[in-house]
Write a structure and sequence with these properties.
alpha/beta; Spore Coat Polysaccharide Biosynthesis Protein SpsA, Chain A; UDP N-Acetylglucosamine Acyltransferase, domain 1; 29% strand; binds guanosine-5'-diphosphate-alpha-D-mannose; binds magnesium ion
Length: 349
């Protein structure tokens, strides 16, 4: 079985985190997000993966190479300008030999891929879309279907008054190869706005496969933080992550290699420290994710925040809930990063 994982987006909603790394490379506990995704594919027997990339592709290539280390075959296809979620698929058609999976590169889910494949084979449609229920569908693709699963309408990012169901496109598709022939070449094409609506009005049906598995799109900081916390709490099972060893830390938390926590600091529960972090005495960290090399000064407090690599938080500084701090920023001693603030403030997309 082959898969295409879409990894070309700019990750604008994750800025400033995605100024230094592309979205697939943001860490989730002990390794880049994408590595968890690829391991999940490998476990399901998918060994060959095509990666249409565009924004900061070298970071992805440098880490995964040809995939041999993971026992997989990875092919990168770099877009000079973004081709869109369908254009990117058409652009890699030379690698695809039969039915194939497609994954949005920012989705974390416990979906059983084997069961979805089974469903697709039985239904005989031109494609199958994984659906998940959400409270607010306006940030997603809204999908209407018949009782037998046949999809009748796909509305991407509907206005509140256009919402007719809370079932949304969960970003995992199983498509017949002939779908690629229907995608125009040489321009940006959105699978959500163009290809799916077109397939729905075609002769061979498109089916929905709705499940209640764990599901989250990590493309917004609050969701990215939640994904980390859900893994710590075991809501989302991940076999790649073991328990944390650091004694001064309250569970569930995760402490990366070579990180040191002063025994007079209060860290956790719900804290992820990357590799080589240093937390000084009387510092207080709660429900937060700190990437590699973050230094937290004496008496500093961090709550509900995400700090990218090599950030320095000065003594007695306070980083409040929902704050996001970009790579290498210095938070001066005694200062406050207010709730929801982004440092530096991202440029408009
Ligand atoms: N190669 C390539 N080229 N990849 C792209 C491009 C492109 O031009 N544009 C987006 N992508 C990748 C992104 O990197 C991401 O992995 C995936 O396509 C989806 O893009 P997002 O920008 O994250 O889309 P979204 O989250 O707003 O909406 C999509 O996902 C929702 C589920 O999380 C849609 O598919 C919705 O219908 C869906 O509900
Ligand atoms: Mg997304």
């Amino acid at each position: 079985m082959q898969a295409i994982v879409l990894v070309g987006g700019e990750g604008t909603r994750l800025r400033p985190l995605t100024y230094s790394v592309p979205k697939p490379m943001v860490p989730l506990l002990d390794r880049p997000f994408m590595e968890h995704v690829l391991l999940r594919l490998r476990d399901a027997g998918i060994n060959e993966v095509v990666l249409p990339a565009c924004y900061l592709p070298e970071a992805i290539q440098r880490h995964f190479g040809d995939g041999e280390r993971m026992g997989m075959r990875l092919h990168y296809v770099i877009e000079e300008a973004p081709l869109g979620t369908a254009g990117a698929l058409r652009n890699v058609e030379r690698f695809i030999t039969g039915p194939f999976f497609v994954f949005n590169g920012d989705v974390l889910t416990s979906l059983d891929l084997g069961a979805m494949l089974e469903f697709h084979r039985r239904s005989g449609g031109i494609g199958t879309l994984h659906l998940t229920p959400v409270e607010d569908p306006t940030a997603f693709g809204c999908v209407e279907r018949e009782p037998d699963g046949r999809i009748t309408r796909f509305a991407e990012k509907p206005k509140p008054h256009e919402v007719t169901t809370n079932s949304i496109n969960a970003g995992t598709y199983l498509l017949e190869r002939e779908v690629l022939d229907r995608i125009p070449t040489g321009r940006n094409v959105s699978i959500e706005r163009e290809t799916f609506p077109q397939l729905i009005s075609g002769d061979r049906p498109l089916y929905a496969y709705a499940t209640e598995d764990y599901w989250i799109d990590i493309g917004k900081p609050e969701n990215y933080l939640k994904a980390n916390l859900d893994i710590l709490r075991g809501t989302m099972p991940l076999r790649t992550v073991g328990p944390s060893a650091e004694a001064a830390v309250k569970h569930p938390s995760f402490v990366g290699a070579h990180s040191t926590v002063d025994r007079r600091a209060e860290v956790g529960p719900g804290v992820v420290l990357g590799r080589g972090c240093r937390v000084a005495a009387r510092a207080h960290i709660y429900e937060s994710v700190l990437w590699d090399g973050v230094v937290v000064g004496e008496g500093a407090s961090i709550e509900g925040a995400v700090l990218a690599g090599d950030v320095h938080v000065g003594a007695n500084a306070r980083v409040e809930r929902g704050a996001v701090v970009g790579h290498g920023e210095r938070i001066p001693a005694g200062s406050v990063v207010p709730a929801g603030a982004r440092v530096p403030t991202p440029l408009p997309a």
